[in-house]
Amino acid sequence: MQSSAATTHVAEHAVNVAAPAADVYDLVADAQRWPDVFGPTVHTEVLEETEQHQVLRIWAFANGRVRDWTSRRSLDPSARTVTFRQVVSAPPVASMGGVWRIGETADGCRVTLLHDYRAIGDDPEALRLIETALDTNSTAELGALKTTAERLAQSAQLRFGFSTHRDIDGSPREVFDFLARAESWPSRLPHVARLDLREEEPGVQHMTMDTYGPDGSVHTTSSVRLCFPERGLIVYKQTAPPPVMTGHTGRWLVESVLDDSGAPVVRATSWHTVVLDPDGVRRVLGPSTRLAEARAMVRRSLDANSSATLLRAKQFVE
């Protein structure tokens, strides 16, 4: 990593990917998929969008803590570049920008990630923290991009999503509180054996949870959740997913809607997005297990837990 005599510093990271350049560009350009691809990214929201420009709000880990910032992006699919600049940076960053470049190679493509940044007050300790976070996150992001792109090039069945919902006769806030107060789940949900919850700041929850499988076995997962009570929304990402997955993200949404008869009702919906790990599938479920079978098994398990949670929320509120 190098720095100029002024206060602007630069960093460059790169990786070779055995996948078509166009497909890799699509993964970088589609920010909504970042939580499924990039380990540090927890959640992204598109605030403004045109064909070639976006304004994003991003939540991601930096030096072990979840930070959020707003970035403006320019997308050039013909050149396969995505240029970005933080509109509102999180301290100690004063400003940050850069560019993704995806260039074709004989056996796939080479992805280069460039950053330029400044620290508030040009503070040496702040610069060290930024350097560490940049190096850690960029290395992790490029490694994850390589793994995801190369696996998806082999099979599109690895990534899938689904949802389930339940209508509840109660107030949206009561339903939301049931889902947000996860520390009470062991006494409220039969499939939750243990849950440790730490809230580092309001609305940012870190969870470690033991759940019972259909056969009575106990599985441990770790997640980070972002709670938006004013929107009735909870988004989450498993930071330590089960071994058959490389990624698992989801969200809970509580909203007032009209049911099929036109009557007002509170609807709670659970969404899941899963990326399977083919090596983990063979290791855990057996070498002859097909991806379609693994998809069905994972969906049944996740859907059963979500449906049980929604049913208990309904019973608790009503």
UniProtKB/TrEMBL annotation:
InterPro entries linked to this entry: Polyketide_cyclase/dehydratase (IPR019587), START-like_dom_sf (IPR023393)
Pfam families, per database record: Polyketide_cyc2
Protein name in the entry: Cyclase
Species of origin: Streptomyces tendae
